[in-house]
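User: Look at the shape:
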Amino acid sequence: MTRIQVKPEPLDRLKTEATAIFLFEDAKKEKLRDSMDKKLGGRISSLIRKKRYTPKKFSTRSIDTLGKMKSETILLMGLGKKGDLTPDIMRRAAAKAALTLRSLGVRNFSLTVEGVGKGSKLSDTLLAQAAAEGILLSLYRFTEYRKKPQNDNSKIDIDYAVLSQKKSLAKVKASVSAAQKLCKSVFLARDLQNHPGNKIGRAHV
């Protein structure tokens, strides 16, 4: 199972192969986006201004940082309109980000939900658990009986994700831990369902 770590370091100081950032469609200013944009020479704002990328719900766009950041790749992950954000949207967006990065051959990545729910009743703790669940559940694979890879990246798995969180660190760690326990139980149920009946019987259960 993919490991999810929670660290207090700022997102741009985490050394991972890729960094996923969440964007709102209707936000004129976003602290994280603007900070990343500055480091990348205005490439994010240029894409949005020229309408080559719009942060609509679950839309993605990858950018090569060209050595300007510690991560080689930045993944823009759209959340749609800020007022429509829910834990389920965060869960699905995090899942989409994880699957997109895995398809690109990425083995680890960083992200943050800190401040994403600002102005709403959605706490960092709630959104962190939703994001962790989305990442873990989306990356589940049952490969015990698979003989040939389906594509070039079918054997690539994301080993770990790092969640950047400065405020409420202990609470966020606890919520991520709860998500990992929940997903472990889901994986057990999925494994039991995927095994043929002659392999997993009542005695095994």
